Amino acid sequence: MSNDMSHNSDAAGQVDFAPLFQSGILSRDNVLVAERVSKNEILQRLIDSLAGSPMIKSKEELQEGIFHREQLMSTGIGMEIGIPHVRIGSVKDVILAAALVRQGVDEYESLDSKPVKLIFMIVARKDQHDQHLKLLAQISRRLKEDAFRRCLIDSADGDEFYSLLTEGRGNGHG
Amino acid sequence: MDDINSGILLILGLSVIGGMLGALAFQKIRFPQVVGYIVIGFIIGESGFDIIGNKHAEALQMFNYFALGVIGFLVGGELKIEAFKKYGRQFTAILLGEGVMAFFLVGALSYLVIYLVAKDFRVALAGAVVFGAIASATDPASTVDVLWEYRAQGVMTTAIIAIVALDDALAMTLYGIGKASAQLLTGGHGSIGHELIGVSRELLGAIGVGGMAALLLIGFLRWIRHPERGVALAVGMIMMVIGVAVWWRMDVILAGMTLGFVMTNLASYRSEPIFKLLRGFSIPIYVLFFVLVGARLGFSRMTWWIWMLVLVYVIGRSVGKMLGSYWGASISRSPRNVRRYLGMSLFAQGGVAVGLSIVAAQNLKNIMITPDVSLGDAIVFAVTGTTMIVQLVGPAMVKAAVRLAGEAGRNITEDDMMDMLHVRDAASMSPHMLKESDSLRSALMLFRDNDMFIYPVIDRAGHLTGMVSLEALKSVLLDRDTWEWLLVADVMDSVPARITPDQTLAAAEQQMSECRLDQLPVVAADNTKTPVGIIDRRMIKVKLQSELIRRRSEEEPHG
Question: Is the sign of the CA dihedral B307, B310, B315, B316 positive or negative?
Fold first, then answer.
């Protein structure tokens, strides 16, 4: 599937992509938009957001897991994308949070040293090994599509960002 | 009728429990358990408290046949055709050596005793021939029971099983010839040709019935998946074979043996679980059988010269078996252990000898040694006396022989070995370790360059934090770009259990089953955070197989 063929845009500038996530795995409450924040701050905000979900039973374990993983190596995978992720015992099922940082996080230490603008935090149960890895690979594969990635970065607000991720629909500002 | 039936059930229960207690007591003083069964039988039987009397013995005759059939079946299951192909010449030489030597020595010595009493060389010769023939038999049941109890395995053990299985046939042939000679010598109406036809019918008929039943059973087993049902079918077939053999007066134990022999050699895969299950189920049958053997031993009517016969019979038979098997083993160039110790394993005497003595009592009751004791009576009394002595001494000698030959405790199963071997014997010790911060690429390279399927993962402090298996990586193998930014920490599994090098393989296997894992990290005994190795089911299997091969190769004869 080539980048050009992966979406359509109509006369009103509406874009239509294949959705990245199944609805249910990402709720609107766990989607944030920020202008300029530090790495620790945005990670903490995503953690706080997820901790409000009934799926998470221990915020402490989540927090410790996410920051421990970042200590081992940054989860900035390049192309302005960061995927902090963890498998813990105190989550009922796979759950996601997403953030758009318009100015980018400079100190994310991503592989290509560019600021990170799109952040997807994945939390899976310890035994959900396969789902966890498949989700990671799926995000990295889909966000290689320049058009989709640009649309996400250029989302007007949280609603559009959420709509692009779960339905593939946006206004196509870029 | 109710009285007799309920009485018999009570006696069966008493015999089994008493026999088991007797076996325990005798095991404490390091005697084979079969001796315990017989002594308990002796105590509660005819010569002791007479709880099991003649009427019970008669009522239990069918049970005895059943026990002989099951014992025969299990003994036959031990006889592999490969062993006969490999050692056939040695077995034949030893069989003829021990059988013929016992025949001649017992014959010669009993001739002297009977002649001393009867003063008639024809009667003495007739008695000598029959005693000699009976002396050549060996009891497979108690002998093989001792071999199983002490888990014997090796070339001598194989030779013992083959010889005790075959020398009953030799004894019956010699007896047929001996009985006809005795009747001819003493002016009766015997004919050697007629006797030989009778014996052939008994032996060949038993082989034919057992063989045909085995083919039928193998055919039925094709349709049966559960070994438990296979056992039911096998027991049913054993009963039918015994029924036919008793009906046509064939040798019951030989028919059972043929059934087991054909089964194990033509359908070893299907019959192996059946033999295993039946062996467990056969314990009460064995106990009861030997308790009843002990109970039937009667001494009330024995005179001094019959005790003399007992004495010369036991000495002549023991010396004959030892010298004869040494001679047979030497000329067939059998291994040293077989030459030295096989003869002392052939002392036990049971079913066939007692059976032949009872037949002799019927056939030879008109040949009188003294005015009130016939040759038939003398044979029954003497064989009873000798049976008691050799059944008490024989099993202990079998135990001593397998110990001396170094074959005791060798017939161990994989389960036994799992208890004997330790984790350090099978585990991969000091394997490569992965750090949790290593990239997925370096983990994949490690799997590519080594033949392990799993590696322990350590943190910065060197403590075990997880394990990475090739299985866990399969979902990202195709996404090469993830290899750069995924870490070992992202793909590792946690460690729900760990094991130390000094624990047994059985413990490791149990932990894996409980945690539903195929592998476990091995940690230092004094610090369970420090990984020192890794163990998986494949390593355990490889170790068990190589250990079995090693033990088998040690059993091969060295000349």
Answer: positive
Domain boundary among B387, B411, B435: B411
B558 in any annotated domain: no
Q: Are residues B390 and B514 in the same domain?
A: no
Please give the residue that has the higher pLDDT: either B315 or A8. B315
Verify whether the Cβ–Cβ distance A73 to B479 is below 8 Å.
no
Q: What is the pLDDT of residues B518-527, one digit of tens each?
A: 888 899 888 7
Residues in contact with A58: Cβ distance below 8 Å, sequence separation at least 6, in sequence order: A88, A90
List CB contacts (< 8 A) between A141 and chain B: 479
- Give the pLDDT confidence of A59-93 residue by residue, as tens digits: 999 999 999 999 989 999 999 999 999 999 889 99
pTM: 0.54
Q: Which residues of chain A from 25 to 64 reach within 8 Å of chain B, CB to CB?
A: none
Note whether B297 and B339 are same-domain residues: yes
Mean pLDDT, rounded, of chain B: 82
How confident is the model over B81-107, as a mean pLDDT?
85
The total number of structural domains in chain B stands at: 2
Distance from CA of B520 to the nearest CA of A (A): 17
Which residues, at least 6 apart from B15, have a Cβ–Cβ distance to it below 8 Å? Answer: B40, B41, B44, B52, B287, B288, B291, B292, B295
Q: Are residues B356 and B502 in the same domain?
A: no
B450 and B523 both lie in a single domain: yes
- In the 3-class helix/strand/coil scheme, how is B161-225 assigned residue by residue? HHHHHHHHHHHHHHHHHHHHHHHHHCCCCCCHHHHHHHHHHHHHHHHHHHHHHHHHHHHHHCCCC
Q: How many Å apart are CA A145 and CA A36, to the nearest integer?
A: 24
In a domain, B182, yes or no: yes
pLDDT digits (tens, 9 = 90+) for B26-68: 778 766 676 778 788 888 887 788 887 767 767 777 887 888 7
Q: Enumerate domains of chain A plus CATH numbers.
A: 14-168 (3.40.930.10)
Among candidate residues B411, B437, B456, the one where a domain is terminated? B411
Residue at B415: amino acid letter:
D
